[in-house]
Amino acid sequence: MQGFNMGRYVPPEYEGTTSANKLAGKNALGNRARKSGQGILTVRFEMPFAIWCTTCPKPTIIGQGVRFNAEKKKVDNYYSTPIFSFRMKHSACGGWIEIRTDPKNTAYVVTEGAKKRDTGEDKVQEGEIRIRTDEERERLQNDAFAALEGKVEDKRQALTNKTRVEELLQLQDKDWDDPYAASKKLRRAFRADRKVRQKNHEVTENLKDRMSLGMDLLEETEEDRKRAGFVEFGEMGGEGAIAKAKAKPLFASPDSKSTLAKKHRVKESRKTKTLEQAEKRRETLRLELSGNTRAATDPFLLGDKAWGSTNGHTGILSAIKRKRADGSISTRVDNEVTNEATISGGTGRTPALVDYDSD
């Protein structure tokens, strides 16, 4: 049974005595431990602070949080705590950067290829007290010149502090030269502020009661007034506003205006379509009536040229066909119709009547 080494072949004679990695001469960490013989392990290192790369032709900054594949190696010990070095390659210029741990100061130190970006955090600010280390105390005890420099610096600092304290005392004596007047001035200002605070408190409580607010409201500031001035609430007061409010539906949606506009447009479009359909029906009826009228007229008797016209008048000779007793057909020209057309003097066509006798 393979057990943990599932998928890796272990001969039966070595099973239970060694692992597949040892048998194959490989490390369990794979390619990360290719330099394990030199005590180097490849890890993912994240830059603890911003640094300047000194290998690049132009000053290049590497920001905090940038990650590299670094070679981790133990280089020294601080008492029983190991000091590790992280050596990585900058892909922009190909230079190597080395950063080491500093267990003494619980920090990281750049030792090669770069320098830490100076942000002023490590400098002692005014009013801060710098705690000396054991090495500095020992150096002050053994080195007379270092102790003398420290004493001179302490004397200068003490003189500066003494001058500042005397200035503060003079200001205090000036302000409290007449304690009764100073107390009266303070009480007057406090009394006026107290009235203002009470008034603001009453306004706030009334607002909370009206709005049913269960939270504390902060005091109004100038910035709040400016921001409130930028808000437009529309028309305030007047009969126009009352009429608009009454005309609005009680449960109108936020986009009721757009809905009404859409309904109006739909109605107009429906109205237009109705008119178009009515016009189309009228045109269809007109064409049908004109077609029926043309069909009622004999199309073979309507010609452009007159047949038998005289004196420039257009006329059509009408004839009546009758069937004789012997079976032959005789045609007689109707002079009355022809004369009637000539007397009218019109150029219009006179409809001809043809009588077809039938058996």
In one word, what is the shape? flat
Mean pLDDT: 75
Largest sheet: 5 strands, antiparallel
Number of strands: 10
Q: How far apart are the termini? A: 122 Å
Q: Into which percentage range does the β-strand content fall?
A: 15-25%
Low-confidence spans: 301-319, 333-348
Q: Helix/strand/pairing class, anyone?
A: alpha+beta
| Helix share bin | 40-55%
Major beta sheet, strand line-up:
1-4-5-6-7
* N-to-C SSE string, H for helix and E for strand: HEEEEEEEEHHHHHHEEH
| Separate helix tally | 8
Walk me through the topology:
Layout: H1 20-24, E1 41-46, E2 51-53, E3 60-62, E4 67-78, E5 81-89, E6 96-102, E7 107-112, E8 114-116, H2 134-142, H3 144-175, H4 179-211, H5 222-229, H6 238-247, H7 256-296, E9 319-323, E10 329-333, H8 335-344
Helix pairs in contact: 2-3
Features:
three-stranded antiparallel β-sheet, alpha+beta, 359 residues
What's this, in brief?
With 359 residues, this protein is of the alpha+beta class. 41% of the residues lie in helices and 16% in strands.
Question: What does this molecule look like?
Answer:
- The structure is a single chain.
- This protein has 359 residues and is α+β, with helices and mostly antiparallel strands.
- It has helices at 20-24, 134-142, 144-175, 179-211, 222-229, 238-247, 256-296, 335-344; strands at residues 41-46, 51-53, 60-62, 67-78, 81-89, 96-102, 107-112, 114-116, 319-323, 329-333.
- The chain has a five-stranded antiparallel sheet with strand order 1-4-5-6-7, with no helix packed on it. It has a three-stranded antiparallel sheet with strand order 3-2-8, with no helix packed on it. A two-stranded antiparallel ribbon has the order 9-10.
- Helix 2 (134-142) crosses helix 3 (144-175).
